[in-house]
Design brief:
Layout (H helix, E strand, L loop, with lengths): L21 H43 L11 H20 L3 H16 L2 H8 L5 H11 L7 H14 L4 H15 L4 H9 L3 E6 L5 E6 L2 H20 L8 H15 L9 H5 L5 E6 H4 L7 E3 L3 E3 L1 H10 L3 E6 L18 H11 L15 E4 L14 E4 L1 H9 L3 E5 L3 E5 L5 E4 L17 H6 L9
Parallel strand pairs: 3-6
Antiparallel strand pairs: 1-2, 3-4, 4-5, 7-8, 9-10, 10-11
Pfam family, one: DUF222
Protein name: DUF222 domain-containing protein
Organism: Agromyces archimandritae
Length: 456
């Protein structure tokens, strides 16, 4: 679809409107608003181009002066890697972005400034925006430096982007690549197949997306099977209130959680011996029905109080962890051995939920426990000296000039190489839940619980 900014002239077969009529005034007023929006979009694109250039300059500066951002004891290649990680973290925390988003922006900036001059120029003029840029970068990202196809795509797609939307540009990019590139579809498919994966995307209202990146034929087969099973369920006698979309989702859930791979599958043995396990943190008053405060699913966020009570009562795949209804306090211990015991590790996972570096959302279950003050330097293996860091940020802490202070209550204060300060707070509740009577004592709350093993 081609888009232009000019207003169409009135043709001889069209109704002519008097220039002072209310309809003409309305058309002109709306036209001025649209023109202003286009101008704002052009200004925004120019500023985005400037940001790309500044980020690229910043990354290159950090790489040229890696000795200022990393310890001198690191090997040269490691110093470059850690300098890049450090500057990405610096930009991400300053711009309030996730590091994944910032790293992608830095890659786009590098591509624009070193491989895609026509695209960068169009963005600097405000003739395209970042959505167009991402399409063009994506169309060239897997091409090696010096490949003549990069220049051809840059020239053709930058020109096309000036007059079309990103979705149409993406289709054009796919067609041009097929026409211009020498690599076969089979070779590209083999590379793409190696990237297959599953991703969990937490959402609001106690929900989450589960994404699967599969070979197209397998994805189509899986989708068709869901459709057929859902259709068979809907044909069963008796009332069925679920929509087709809800039926497909419920069928997929049951197959993934309960089903075993078929005979001959290389995954059958592993699947039959695995039981999914998830931590659910339930306020005590929610568990006994005295409050409707939501519980938390590790890695996904809040869930409804009723769902939490059902899980705590009967779901074997969920580990129940209770929190104090007034303070939300967890374990406070002081250990003098290096490796934290299982009970302390579990409580730290509950407290942190994610990596404690600013902006990082990697789940604590996939992170490493770090002594904020080094154990060899006298740091204790305690609740107030341990925190979860993903592998990447664990290295950033120890192999760059980032600094961290662990405050009381699980608060982490980070100082970037340029002196910017960032505070991360534990995400767990610290206030009384809705409906909690004033002065309620923990002894009374715990006496009201059904008999069970302590949750720690």
């Amino acid at each position: 679809m081609t888009m232009t900014l000019e207003r169409p002239a009135v043709g001889p077969s069209q109704v002519r409107i008097h220039p002072l009529s209310p309809v003409a005034v309305a058309h002109d007023s709306l036209g001025e608003l649209v023109d202003a929006a286009v101008a704002a979009r052009r200004s925004e694109a120019m500023l985005q181009a400037a940001r790309y250039v500044l980020v690229h300059i910043g990354v290159q500066y950090a790489l040229r002066h890696a000795d200022a951002f990393t310890p001198a004891s690191l090997p040269p290649a490691r110093r470059l890697e850690m300098a890049r990680r450090s500057v990405i973290a610096e930009f991400a925390t300053a711009l309030r972005m996730s590091e994944r988003t910032m790293a992608a922006l830095a890659e786009e900036a590098g591509a624009l400034c070193t491989r895609l001059p026509h695209t960068l120029h169009a963005l600097q003029l405000g003739e395209i925006d970042t959505a167009h840029v991402r399409v063009i970068v994506g169309a060239t990202v897997d091409l090696p430096d010096g490949d003549p196809l990069i220049g051809k795509l840059d020239d053709a797609l930058a020109e096309r982007a000036r007059e079309t939307n990103p979705a149409s540009l993406r289709r054009t990019a796919r067609r041009l690549r097929e026409e211009l590139r020498a690599e076969s579809f089979a070779e590209r498919h083999a590379k793409a197949l190696a990237e297959r994966r599953v991703e969990l995307e937490p959402c609001g209202d106690g929900m989450a997306w589960l994404h699967l990146y599969l070979e197209a034929s397998e994805a189509a087969l899986a989708h068709d099977r869901l459709n057929q099973i859902a259709a068979a369920v809907s044909r069963d006698p008796g009332p069925e209130e679920r929509t087709p979309e809800q039926l497909r989702a419920d069928v997929a859930r049951d197959l993934l959680i309960e089903a075993v791979p078929p005979e001959g599958s290389p995954h059958r043995g592993a699947a039959s011996s695995v039981r999914p396990t998830v931590h659910v943190t339930v306020p005590v008053l929610t568990l006994i029905g005295g409050s409707d405060s939501p519980a938390l699913i590790d890695g996904c966020g809040p869930i409804a109080a009723e769902t939490a009570r059902e899980l705590a009562a009967r779901a074997p795949s969920f580990t129940r962890l209770l929190t104090h209804p007034v303070s939300g306090a967890v374990l406070d211990v002081d250990r003098t051995v290096y490796r934290p015991p299982a009970d302390l590790s579990k409580w730290l996972r509950v407290r942190d939920e994610t990596c404690r570096f600013p902006g990082c959302n990697r789940r604590a279950s996939g992170c490493e426990l770090d002594h904020t003050e080094g154990f060899a330097a006298g740091g204790k293996t305690s609740f107030d000296n341990l925190g979860h860091l993903c592998s990447k940020h664990h290295h950033v802490k120890h192999e760059s000039t980032w600094q961290v202070r662990h405050r009381e209550g699980g608060i982490f204060d980070w100082i970037s190489p340029t002196g910017r300060r960032h505070r991360t707070l534990p995400p767990g509740a610290t206030a009384a839940p809705a409906g909690a009577p004033p002065g309620l004592m923990a002894e009374r709350e715990f006496r009201s619980l059904p008999p069970d093993e302590p949750p720690w």
